[in-house]
Amino acid sequence: VSRYYLEKLEGWESCRALVTFGTPYRGSVDAIDYLANGYKKAFVDFTDAMRSMPSVYELLPIWRVLVDGNDWRRVAETEGIPHMSSVRAGDAIAFHREIEEAVERHKAVPEYLANRYHIIPVVGVAQPTLQSVRIDGKSLSASRELPGWIDTKLGGGDGSVPRVSATPIELSDKYRETFFAERHGSLQNNSYALDDLHERLKQMQSTG
Length: 208
Known about the structure:
By secondary structure, this protein is an alpha/beta fold. Helices cover 32% and strands 17% of the residues.
């Protein structure tokens, strides 16, 4: 949502920095697992509600995460996924593409290049995290198996968001991330992460 505002809706004009804690810029395998196989917490079944939400579809992984024989395919390009609405999946990938296209378009805007907000991704690592899915007959199974085309050194994540998803696509080779061995729901409470953020904010606000 923040990225859509900053890029598509031109919010960059009034923003200095975007700090994200385990944000799934490229989605999460958990989302496809919940949509296909359902989601229950304690005695409450959230499955129908989750399958009705466009925001859950927008959390679908946009990288090639589904193994099909020797090939890896994107979820939005794959038919036959249980309980998956192809229309909502298509709308979700279009949402991501709108952001990507806005980023590319802004590269030709001098004011944007001179005053662009800084993106600071705080990334959780060293936690068991779902990385891929496969369809067996009419069922879908998610696993921690890293897609074969991704370097094994980039495995893991924060337990919900794979490491490869926690950085914007255009910053993949910029080394802007800060890494913490922490779970997704605790990243924003990690004292070391907060100390790091505090010092960054002080430096951004300094003068002279």
